[in-house]
Amino acid sequence: MNAVHASVDDLRQAARDYLPRLVFDFVDGGAEREITLRANTADFEPLRFAPRVLTDASQIDTGTTLLGEQIALPLLIAPMGLCGLVRPQGELALARAAQAAGIPLVLSTTASHALETVMEAAPGNLWFQLYLFRDREFTRSLLQRARGAGYRALVVTVDLARGGKREKDIHNGFTVPPRFSRRTAADLLRHPGWLWRMLPHRHQTLGNLVGWGGQDSNVVALSTFMNTQIDPSISWADIEWLRSEWDLPLLVKGILRPDDARQAVAAGADGVIVSNHGGRQLDGAPSTISVLGSVVDAVGGAGEVILDSGVRRGADILKALALGARACMIGKAALYGLAAGGEAGVARVLAILRQELDVAMALTGTHRADAVQRDTLQD
């Protein structure tokens, strides 16, 4: 990673250059016409700061607390499946970079590497993301494994009653692992760096799911079986069940409505994550920043509120904090860094966002990330 990367957008371009098109589109794309995907970033733009001057900006503190833990930035790396498809290190590189930056990583149920392996690689403030499966005993076993390995919080994703229609993946003939065909061979061969790294690791798997339902480590069989196990009948009673099974912080991810946020807290959640799955599920859902304020008002201090989806700048983080978020999550931005330079690329993304947040705070007269006020933004 020798080029100068001044922004997350620069690293996105580096990821595009490094990855075959079908893998880049899998990372970067959204559902159907990508209306929500575009809105996630575009809707930050109309928000304008109301900067204070002459406030002594010599000392800026980007740290905050989240679920009672001190973190160096109001930021987390979001749960994402099959990160080993970007670089073989996958979640191991993401976790190490997050640990070095002093922020949490949320590990996906569908990670390439098993939750125990990731904790061994980067012990510390790791959270675990869970899908509720029809097989409740297997779901319980994942909870027990996460608890035993030392994961500090549970994030349950609730916006996957059906898989979103991702048309770029359909057009590209995307499969896991990518297969050589007349349709894909030229694309793969144009990216020899990725191909050279991936060939020894072409037998991808879903590390947390190996052995479930008698399946071996074959990623296609595991993915197919998992898709039959996603439970579309989940309800608030299942959140209450999870609360009874998990004695550490619990957050509900996929909230876009104030009434759902209130219900999540009433069901026992310690917080909510305002998320539309990165624009990968329901196209036409609102951007997360556009509904953040109403969700914060609905929760009313009864739990933490985290913003997911669309963050590309440190200024975006400050805008979300001004609207009441405790922290933000990044997904695609972290994967751009992973593609561009492995662990060092992820570290570069986090350093860029930290530096941009520091500048935005200084120039708005904001001294502490844990005390950002609503009037940091214009009405």
Mind summarizing the main beta sheet? 8 strands, parallel
CATH topology: TIM Barrel
Annotation field: number of helices? 15
What characteristic shape results from the CA principal axes? Answer: globular
Distance linking N and C termini: 42 Å
Question: Can you walk me through this structure?
Answer:
The chain has 379 residues and is α/β, with parallel strands linked by helices. The protein has one domain: TIM Barrel (Alpha-Beta Barrel). Helices cover 42% and strands 11% of the residues. The protein has helices at 8-18, 21-28, 35-42, 91-101, 115-121, 136-149, 167-172, 185-189, 192-198, 219-229, 236-245, 258-266, 288-299, 314-322, 332-364, and strands at 64-66, 69-71, 75-77, 105-107, 126-130, 153-157, 250-255, 271-274, 304-308, 327-330. The longest helix is centred in the last third of the chain and has 33 residues, at 332-364.
Topology (SSEs and partners):
Blueprint: H1 8-18, H2 21-28, H3 35-42, E1 64-66, E2 69-71, E3 75-77, H4 91-101, E4 105-107, H5 115-121, E5 126-130, H6 136-149, E6 153-157, H7 167-172, H8 185-189, H9 192-198, H10 219-229, H11 236-245, E7 250-255, H12 258-266, E8 271-274, H13 288-299, E9 304-308, H14 314-322, E10 327-330, H15 332-364
Helix pairs in contact: 1-15, 4-5, 4-15, 12-13, 14-15
Characteristic terms for this protein:
379 residues; alpha/beta; eight-stranded parallel beta sheet; TIM Barrel; two-stranded antiparallel sheet; 15 helices
